[in-house]
């Protein structure tokens, strides 16, 4: 009997000691809800600096103006393919960096992260030979370019079709607006101009899935209503046919270009 009572006493003592230990441990460990939650620190995105910062007021960026690239040189809007090839090779060999027009507006305004020897290659109207002749040459030298498209003429009258437009848009050629009908804008009312600019922009954005930020005025004609309509339609730049190199002081909706004509060397064009 005594042995039995002794055994019970030992068991009770062990249980008491175990309970005390658990209580002491519970007192030593802080409650989970009192622990501050450490939020992981968010890292700011790193902006890759690939160029240099320059004073935008000093910029003189050549924006080349081509139309047709064709053997049948009937006027000064047509550049033979072999000449165009030589010009593009010269740009590539001499370290020029072609820009998309979607890049140009910020560069003109800020001068930040400017690549060495910036240049812009543009084509007006959207001719079929831009796809068959110019596009392969640009791909050969790895050069970006931009085409001002007359949206009502897509797949009509020797202008490239939607399939060609989409292919080029996905492979280094940016599509920008040359209005819907290629009418001289200074002959239209403000409302008519706004419709031309908004509708062409919407069509190109729907076809490419990319934002259109630049308008090229047909035949270079514009007036004060044109500039107001361009801004209202959501464009950030407008180009004329006036000669010169681009600088924001020219006016972001009245920017000049360098007209390329048959027989012109690239060295002469960039002087």
Automatic annotation (TrEMBL):
<dbReference type="InterPro" id="IPR002509">
    <property type="entry name" value="NODB_dom"/>
</dbReference>
<dbReference type="GO" id="GO:0005576">
    <property type="term" value="C:extracellular region"/>
</dbReference>
<dbReference type="GO" id="GO:0005975">
    <property type="term" value="P:carbohydrate metabolic process"/>
</dbReference>
<dbReference type="GO" id="GO:0016810">
    <property type="term" value="F:hydrolase activity, acting on carbon-nitrogen (but not peptide) bonds"/>
</dbReference>
<protein>
    <submittedName>
        <fullName>Uncharacterized protein</fullName>
    </submittedName>
</protein>
<dbReference type="InterPro" id="IPR011330">
    <property type="entry name" value="Glyco_hydro/deAcase_b/a-brl"/>
</dbReference>
<dbReference type="Pfam" id="PF01522">
    <property type="entry name" value="Polysacc_deac_1"/>
</dbReference>
<dbReference type="InterPro" id="IPR051398">
    <property type="entry name" value="Polysacch_Deacetylase"/>
</dbReference>
<keyword id="KW-0732">Signal</keyword>
């Amino acid at each position: 009997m005594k042995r039995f009572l002794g055994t019970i006493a030992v068991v009770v003592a062990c249980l008491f000691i175990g309970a005390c230990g658990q209580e002491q441990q519970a007192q030593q460990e802080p409650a989970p809800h009192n622990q501050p939650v450490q939020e992981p620190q968010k890292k700011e995105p790193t902006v890759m600096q690939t160029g240099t910062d320059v004073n935008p007021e000093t910029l003189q960026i050549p924006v080349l103006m081509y139309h047709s690239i064709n053997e049948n040189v009937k006027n000064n809007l047509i550049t033979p393919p072999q000449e165009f090839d030589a010009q593009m090779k010269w740009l590539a060999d001499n370290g020029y960096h072609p820009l998309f027009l979607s890049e140009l507006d910020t560069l003109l305004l800020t001068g930040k992260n400017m690549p060495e020897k910036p240049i812009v290659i543009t084509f007006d109207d959207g001719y079929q030979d831009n796809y068959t002749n110019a596009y392969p040459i640009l791909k050969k030298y790895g050069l970006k370019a931009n085409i001002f498209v007359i949206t009502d003429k897509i797949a009509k009258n020797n202008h490239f079709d939607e399939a060609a437009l989409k292919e080029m848009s996905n492979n280094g050629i940016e599509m920008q607006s040359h209005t819907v009908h290629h009418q001289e804008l200074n002959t239209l009312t403000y409302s008519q101009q706004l419709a031309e600019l908004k509708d062409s922009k919407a069509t190109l954005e729907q076809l490419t899935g990319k934002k259109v930020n630049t308008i090229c005025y047909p035949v270079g004609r514009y007036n004060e209503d044109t500039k107001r309509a361009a801004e209202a339609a959501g464009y950030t730049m407008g180009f004329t046919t006036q000669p010169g190199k681009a600088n924001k002081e020219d006016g972001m909706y009245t920017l000049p270009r360098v007209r390329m004509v048959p027989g012109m060397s690239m060295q002469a064009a960039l002087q």
